[in-house]
Amino acid sequence: MKKFLLSTALLLVLGLSFTSCRDTKKAEDAEAAVEAAAEKAEEAVEAAADKAEEAVDAATEAAGEAVDKAVDAAGETVDKAVDAAGETVDKAADAVKDKIKKEAGH
């Protein structure tokens, strides 16, 4: 009877030790899988942040170019308006001179 109890206890201890070793192996595998998933998620977040930064940079550059073009166009319009105003003043001055000549000639 004593041998039977000791044998049973020995079998239980051996069974538990193999079971517990197997569980820790699964836990280690699960932990490694979680770490790998976390690393992939971190890489994905970093990649998304990089893409967002590139998009902001491109939008800023495009806006700057649009402002530059608008400034250039406004400058050209002002130059044309100044030229047109100068021509109108010249024509008015010529008309006044012609009118004065006509009046002085009569």
UniProtKB/TrEMBL annotation:
The keyword Coiled coil applies. Residues 24-69 form a coiled coil. Keywords: Coiled coil, Signal. The keyword Coiled coil applies. Residues 1-22 form the signal peptide. This is YtxH domain-containing protein. It comes from Flavivirga eckloniae. The lineage of its organism: Bacteria, Pseudomonadati, Bacteroidota, Flavobacteriia, Flavobacteriales.
